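P.,

For your records, the input lines for the assembly:
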Amino acid sequence: MSIKMIEMPRIGESSVEGTLVKWLVEPGEKIKKYQPIAEIMTAKVTTEMPSMLSGIVQEQLIEEMATVAVGEAILAVQTVEKAVEEQVVQAPLKETISQPNTMARLPEKGLSPSVRRLSKEHQIDLTQVTGTGIRGRITKKDIAQYVQNRNQSPQPQVTSTKKVEVKKLIASDTQQVIQPSPIRLAIAKHMEESKSDIPHAWMMVEADVTPLVKRREQLKHHFLEENGVKLTYFPYFVKAVAIALKKVPLLNASWQNNQILQHHEINLSIAVGTDKALFTPVIMHADQKSVRDIAVEIQQIVQHIRAGNLHQVQMEGGTFTVNNTGAFGSVLSKGIINAPQGGILQVESIVKRPVVIDDMIAIRSMVNLCLSFDHRLLDGVMAGEFLATLKETLLQTEA
Amino acid sequence: MKLNMIDAIHLGLQEELVRDEKIYLIGEDIGRKGGAFGATKGLQEQFGADRVMDAPLAESGIVGMALGSAMAGMRPVCEIQFADFIFPAFNQIYSEVSKLRYRTNNDFEAPMVIRAPYGGGIQGGLYHSQSIESFFAHMPGLRVVIPSGPRDAKALLKTAIRSNDPVLFLEHKKAYRSLVEVVGDAEECFPIDQAIMKKQGTDCLIITYGLFVSKAVKVAEKLAEEGYSVGVLDLVSIYPLDQATILDAAKASGKVLLLSEGNKEGNVISEVAAVLAEEILFELDAPIKRLAAPDVPAVPNAKTLEDAYLHFSETLEEETRALILF
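Structure tokens returned:
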């Protein structure tokens, strides 16, 4: 028998922390390997976490709604190693070869007794200390270094009183304080980072989509019968963006660490909102898919979102975002880029308007296409070329 | 003068035999043959059969006779041919030797040394490879001393012989010929109750004894090239422990790795770990790490199996690095 730890899993390629939404097992409960033990939420996705161990739940190490780093122990499980016990009966062997390093086990928050003592003695705010140990653990040496630096700095008192306190909002008769959901917090954090890190530039063109509207009108009944899915305009725009990106690849790139990461795949994130949250699932290889494929895929994604079982993997790998703002009646909007992507295109409402063609007035179906792009990556010239290409592609849609 | 450990011990015995006529040696094959490893080679010729005595194959008799003569004023140095053979004498050592001074209220004392080669890594098999120190590290009244090299071996052996209380002096047989260094003169005596700081270090401390001290120093030197400062403490006195030195040394980094060739559970290093946890918990910066042999009944004979048994010691470098990075 031994106590083993289950750690916060890495769900999705980029997740660094996760929120434990709900425990599905209680201390004292017997669990089997692969049995769901908790609901975990990482940036935008909630998923059930299977146990990697069989045994008896010893202790829940974090509370519900607590957010901890990936790799941190969350559940202590008492395991029974059957194979070993059977061996003991035959011969007094406990282990034949010494176990590999078990240093990875961390005490609560990784603070050793000496670090706890020293931080108290020297009145150190541990949030101010940079940990150099395993997984950022603060070591005894880090404390010594910190104390040394503090003693050398001219105003030692400033650092210790400089503590930044988070102001708690207070509810009143006329105001209520709402604790945002982890998803809302994740969106807020991502938006804040995207907007503050990326120098957004913005550009809008009007596109004539009359042939596209006619085409869709012709096809929609047949399409529904054949595919069981309503044909909307949006898949046409997704496809057109993929084609335009292929011709002007500079927008299908990321500005990262003062270098440009040029993506060869065209994977389009599409923004799908609900009343509570915004999801950005990805249509992989959109340039290689037909409008029909894209329409069906979007429908499946929307169903996943409604059922609450969109998988994190489905939201990864996007290289550019297309946002269907027209769906809620908008004719003009400025999108925030989905970092670390290079741009986002807002497809606004299609409206019939009188336009001048060859000095004649005609009724055409027009749409505003609003592009936000990372000005570090490219300038107005290429952004304009992208939009012109997109416009042309949409106009070329066969009626 | 540069000597290996067996020659250093030989010289130490020779010098002591010259110095004090009350000292005599007794053991199996130590006279005419000069000992299984040659520790007493030529000494019978030099000092006579009364002072370098061949004994029957009866360890209980060797120790019992030595004790009786010690009570009568002699200063015997017994040799147990292999530490694996010491157990017939266990009762004499535990029930008589270690308790003599206490139970006679200081009327009698036992100024005697029991030397025994221990340890594996030489394909000696089940009866010529064991580390038996833990069995004797639980007997107030008996000191257990283990030297880590030729110079210490000679200087500690002299102190042990000159002590008026019994000392179990364990020599790692693989160290006999593998370690060579300059040894001190006839009057160089090191204290047998003090641990020796072989190397100072601020990132981590390896505490060990016997043959592994030289291994730990090598690892420390290698890690020094990577910019890490690793300390090495030689316990020297396995029982009783030099707690003051151990605690002081451990405080420097708060990270301690303990290394022993004995089976892990119930090992003497576990006692060191307990002392650290009890006395300086709030100086520790990482879980105390023990590296010791697996809990199997004996060091096996086959090369492959013996290597597997001793594999833990090969992980010293990586385990030390892991502890530093913790």
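Two observations worth noting. The radius of gyration of chain A is 28 Å. Residues 83-108, 155-164 of chain A have pLDDT under 50 and may be disordered.

Regards
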